[in-house]
Amino acid sequence: MTDGRGFDRFQRAMSVFAKHYIDPAWKSKKTKGIVLDRPTDSAFSSVFYGYIEISNTLEALKLCETLIGVAPPRSKAVKHDEYFKFLVGAYLQEMYILEQRLSTYAKRMSRLYKKPQIQQIIDQFVSKSLEGIVKTRGAHVHAQRYSDNELDMLSTLTLISQFDADYTEHLKEQYWLAQLEWGKKVKTNNSATREIVDHYFDVLYPLMTKDDRFGLPRAGKSSTPRP
């Protein structure tokens, strides 16, 4: 989304929230050498670093999309088929991690803010929406690295081209075909995932903020950092 909602809205508000919370601790340590120990530190860590884990996973998914779409390393030490399969495996793994982190964060925020409806709402679309991709990863991760027809052919041509230079061009063409197929898959999946994530944070935002500012529950009350 680009209309100031979803993930972007949550991210902007989280940045302001983190700055106001961390600033006193940073200044205390820098000027006085004193490390502040506040009763809300644990809650802050759950709210902020749980979000950071999700954000980092989204960045990893974008990186996978980028690497799948560009030329492989020129080094002969890196086999084209193994490199591409590694990227596909990494992508499926990061998608699985995202599903786990979204679920974990929702559970923690539901308990922290005493908002049971958070988990109930998230369960309705996050797990089910990502289920297909996560199952694809799960079905292969314990037995063998994921593969398909394009990846199998890439492995075949990588082997043959090592001993027959005439197959080098065939290998390049097959790599391009694998890029084309998986590039479309990953781009489509990432776009759909972003919509899910936007919806996810649209659900969380009003339940974790007041007047567009995050608060930290303490003894049953909400303590909102002031600018």
Characterization of the model:
Helices cover 74% and strands 4% of the residues. It has helices spanning 6-31, 41-69, 80-112, 117-141, 149-163, 168-208; strands at residues 209-210, 213-214, 216-218, 221-223. Strand 3 and strand 4 form a beta hairpin. Mean pLDDT is 80; it is low at 137-147 and 219-227.
Nutshell version of this structure?
The chain is mainly alpha-helical.
Calculate the terminal CA-CA distance, rounded to whole Å: 27 Å
The main sheet comes to:
2 strands, antiparallel
Order of helices and strands: HHHHHHEEEE
Q: What percentage of residues falls in helices of 4 or more residues?
A: over 70%
The low-confidence runs, each spanning 5 or more residues with pLDDT under 50, are: 137-147, 219-227
Q: What's the tally of helices?
A: 6
What proportion strand?
Answer: under 5%
What is the averaged pLDDT score? 80
Biggest sheet, spatial arrangement of strands: 1-2
Q: Describe the global form.
A: elongated
Q: Please identify the structural class as seen in this structure.
A: mainly alpha
Give the strand tally.
Answer: 4
Cα gyration radius (Å): 22 Å
